[in-house]
Amino acid sequence: MAIKLxxxxxxxxxxxxxxxxxxxxxxxxxxxxxxxxxxxVKGVAGVELVLLSAGEIPRELRAGRIHLGVTGTDxxxxxxxxxxxxxxxxxxxxxxxxxxxxxxxxTWIDVDTLDDLDAAAAxxxxxxxxxxxxxxxxxxxxxxxxxxxGVADYQLVDSQGATEGTVKNLTAEAIxxxxxxxxxxxxNHLKALKDGVIHKSQAALLRSKSAxxxxxDDKILKALxxxxxx
Amino acid sequence: MMNTRQTRIKAEAAxxxxxxxxxxxxxxxxxxxxxxxxxxxxxxEDIRARAYVTHDPQGGEMMLRPxxxxxxxxxxxxxGAEPARYTYNGPVWRKQQAGSARAxxxxxxxxxxxxxxxxxxxxxxxxxxxxxxxxxKNLRAATGDLGILMAAVSGLSTIEPRKSALKRHIWxxxxxxxxxxxxxxxxxxxxxxxxxxxxxxxxxxxxxxREAGNHVGLRSIEEISARVEKLQADAAASPxxxxxxxxxxxxxxxxxxxxxxxxxxxxxxxxxxxIGPALDxxxxxxxxxxxxxxxxxxxxxxxxxxxxxxxxxxxxxxGFYAEGRADLPAIASxxxxxxxxxxxxxxxxxxxxxxxxRPELIEAxxxxxxx
Lengths: 230, 371
Fold this sequence. Notes:
Chain A is α/β, with parallel strands linked by helices.
């Protein structure tokens, strides 16, 4: 057996993760060609690197198929019901900052808050005969947030990418999506609601509460976590 | 082989079903898979968190029946003669919050009454029937009347859009409170809102939209302008009178035995005449209940009862609870849902009152009692 560490399979999130581990004396590296999804861990014995899509890391942690994983706190909350029961947040890593926010067209000068969104949704339903559509891939987080804040007369429509474009394409009236700088919102003529921050996300190191270990694994895991959180 | 618990539950369901049939109800069945669209249209996104959604390649989104009421109302509208009494006995499916021990699948035995001749008598008939079916089970009954709350909101001396906003959120107590606070002048005005209202005094909303950027999306400049005008009207309206707010509060917080509640409400009526007709209905209902042998002196009445269910009931509401078993949800619940029928009937009015009993809960309660 070995301790399995799941990290994002590509992009800036992967590089930042490698840097974060490197700064703590654990060298993560890809092996083979840069297209091959394989990696290695140097500096600690008995740890295996698993390259995964950031969106799948929560599922693998919950199922106990990996012991540790790095992914966004938004992913964990979206994908794992009662996430604290299945995974423990070991450390927030200080990169991959992104906010899950609600945004509407900039020309909606009458809508600044959730309260306005709710009122606009009620009127929209009367005018158009269907509920105001909010495009998102974060269904669970968005629905819970809107329920808690008592927003009614909306519907969520699924959008797995280019969500900011859905408003212009007339497939949604508003969006709930991740933004880091706001540039994409701006470019698509959208603005964030003032009280519409659903979740402030960043990358986190997580430990599965269900992945099985033997005595040797426990030692490796403890040594690794000691080194990382020193 | 069915285990003994299942046998006891089935027997209880059959017993209840027989009582409802004896009371003149026609037994009906409905499909387990219901088109999601109708339910979504009625209840909104919240229903997705409450009902299991599945997908049919041809039929689109379907839901596992979260209750019988909607399909029974539809069936009645299509083929029913009035007055009509229906009963059903079958499973419903409800998603529960992660970690919740509440049942995902359970039986409901229900009774629905469609009769427009005498609403008070119909309310009383359903309640008395449930009380009788549950006699000897040591249950506490709670009642309320959302019609009184609606009438109270209608009677506020403020502009119409504020009243409709409050009525729309009767079932969302937190939002209702926020609105009330704002309409009472208790919430600060955002700087951006103040700026918009100021700008709108000299520039048309359409021009303000154009200044804000390129317009995208289906919600038109006209719709936005119309809402800006509403915001102006709202800003010009005076806050709701604190005395009226206190009256509304006292209705919301009322917890008394029904006859005492009625007396207190009659006193409130002196300052808020709009609730008069709703109180007349309550009084007629209490009389009808007494005629049917219900001890109304001992009946609990709560001003806010029924506000946390799905948007559904809009008049008399009731529930039966196991004494000393706060862990169990209502053993039985029901009420009047005229507005739901009006939406389903696309404007046709079909006064309806009904309720359901959960045999599993009766079994759970009796097993514990027997221990």
